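In keeping with the milestone schedule agreed at the kick-off meeting, the structural modelling team has produced records for the first pair of proteins. Each record is given below as a sequence line and a C-alpha cell line. The laboratory manager (R.T.) confirmed that both were archived under the project's standard naming scheme.
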Amino acid sequence: MSKHEMLETAEVVGERAAKAEAAVQRLTRWHDDFPTPGVRFADLTPVFADSEGFRSVLDCFAACAPDADLVAGVDARGFLLGAGVAAILGTGVIAVRKAGKLPPPVLSREYTLEYGSAALEIPADGIDLAGRRVLLLDDVLATGGTLAAAAELFTAAGAEVAAAAVVLELGFLEGRERQGNYPVTSIVKL
C-alpha cells in the first residue's frame, strides 16, 4: 500500500470511527464483577442489535484493511463482526475457534487473559492461508493475549495479518503492547 493510500485509509477509518464510537458509547451495557470479581464486562449486544450502530462498526472495520482478502473473527462475538465485514469487502471469512470446537488437524495457540487462560484454533488444512492478507477482528482488546494468539495462528499458517480491529480497548491493561507489527484500530479506548 502506498503512502497516499495509507493516508486515505486512515482518513476513512477516522471518519467511520467517529460514527461508530458514538454508537458504541451510547449502546454498550456495563456489568461489574462479571464473569469473575474485579472484571468489568462490556456487553456489546445492544450495539450489534441496533442496525445503525452495527453497520457503523462494520464500516469502520472494513476501512481498516480494504485490501484484505480474508477476514477472521475471534470466538465468539468476532464471528458476527467478521461475517459482516467480509460481506462488505467481498472476501471470505474464517472463525477463530476456542479449543475443542474444530475437528483435527488444527493449529492451536494457548494464551492468558485477565481472568484465566484458554486456547484458540484454526483448521490446519482445507484452507490455503499461505500469502493471504488477513483482517483480524475481535470485540475487546484487554490484556492482548487473545488477539496476539489469533495473529500467531495466521502467521504460523503463512498468512500476513494486514490489520486488527476491536470495538473496545482497555488501554490500562496494555494489551496493544503484546500485538505484532500490524496496525490495531480500536473504536473506543478506555
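The second protein of the pair:
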Amino acid sequence: MARSSVLARAEKVEPNPSHQGALAATARMAPESVEVVVRTPDGGELALPGELVRILLASAGELARGHAVTVLASEVQLSPSETAELLGLSRPFVARLLDAGDIPSMNLPGSSHRVVRLADVLAFQQRRERRREGRRQIADALEGVDLPY
C-alpha cells in the first residue's frame, strides 16, 4: 500500500492580509503573559496550555510576515522526496546527504526505503543557515580589508 504524503496531509494556513495588524500585535505578546481561552459549543470555557499558546504566538508572527504556516509534529517521518521538497533541494542531492550521514535517516523494516525525522531535517536546515550566515559575515569582513591579492 502506498504511503500518502505527510506534507499533503499537514494542516497549512495561508495568511489573510486583512488580519496582518492583529497578527502582528498578537506576535509581540510574551507567551508567559498571555492566557488564551476557547469557548466550547456548550458554552463552557477551556484555557489553553502554555505550549499551545507559544505555538499560536509563533504562528501569528509568521502569518503577520506573510508566510504560510504548516503544522507538523517534529517526530513525523518524511520520505527523501518530502525532505527534498521541504528543503528546496533535489531528491538526488538529498539522497547523497542521507548517504553521507549529513541528515540522519533509517530504513523501514524489511525494506530499502528510507525515512527521515522532521526534527533531523530542521536541525540540518538550521546548521546550513548558520554556515551560510558565517560565510556571509566572513565575506563582509574581508570586503572592507585591503588585501594584496
